[in-house]
Specification:
This protein is of the alpha+beta class and 174 residues long. 14% of the residues lie in helices and 22% in strands. The strands form three sheets. A four-stranded antiparallel sheet has the order 4-3-5-6, with no helix packed on it. A two-stranded antiparallel ribbon has the order 1-2. Helix 1 (125-136) packs antiparallel against helix 2. Bound molecules: calcium ion (3 copies).
């Protein structure tokens, strides 16, 4: 998986960051059965372990990142031989509700949406204001207002958030 603001289409690489991956039951209320933290490499991948996962049982894969829109897999997925490989980057349709954005044309790649600084499931004016305020205060470090992973809050982060707010980006769940 890629994180929209963290991905660089020139270098084809992403700033590394941590995401939390949940396995969710395939039917309502989609209870979480396990979770694990992944530290994505510059290619957006990691290998993680779920001790509660059972072969042949369908699970949704739910992604949560500090300032991105929560994103679920398109359809429930199954482990076979204790292994499941899932790639969110190949198409918008890999994300539930096609809730992904193209971040590169060569190679063609898709990412989860950035901009949800307050993690309430949508990108709106509240996020824009908080990122703007952080940029005005020259905030630095590992902060939720940093939408491109350079450890600085500035106009670039405001723009990413503003654009997704204008597009009414929000989480889409089963
Ligand atoms: Ca490229
Ligand atoms: Ca928000
Ligand atoms: Ca930044």
């Amino acid at each position: 998986m890629f994180i929209q603001g963290f991905y660089n289409a020139v270098s084809d690489a992403m700033v590394q960051d941590t995401v939390t991956v949940y396995l969710r039951n395939s039917s309502s209320p989609y209870d979480a059965v396990d979770s694990a933290k992944a530290y994505l490499n510059s290619s957006g991948s990691d290998t993680i372990s779920f001790i509660n996962a059972v072969n042949s049982v369908p699970y949704y894969i739910q992604l949560k990142h500090r300032n991105s829109i929560e994103t679920w897999s398109n359809g429930a997925q199954i482990f076979t031989g204790s292994s499941l490989i899932y790639n969110f980057t190949t198409s918008t349709s890999q994300a539930f509700g096609n809730n992904a954005i193209q971040v590169d044309t060569s190679p063609v790649r898709f990412a989860i949406y950035s901009g949800d600084a307050n993690q309430d499931g949508l990108v709106d004016l509240n996020d824009v204001i908080s990122v703007y305020n952080a940029a005005t205060a020259f905030a630095t470090g590992y902060i939720q207002h940093d939408m491109n992973g350079d450890n600085i809050a500035d106009l670039n982060d405001v723009l990413i958030t503003y654009n997704n707010s204008n597009a009414f980006v929000s989480k889409i769940l089963p």
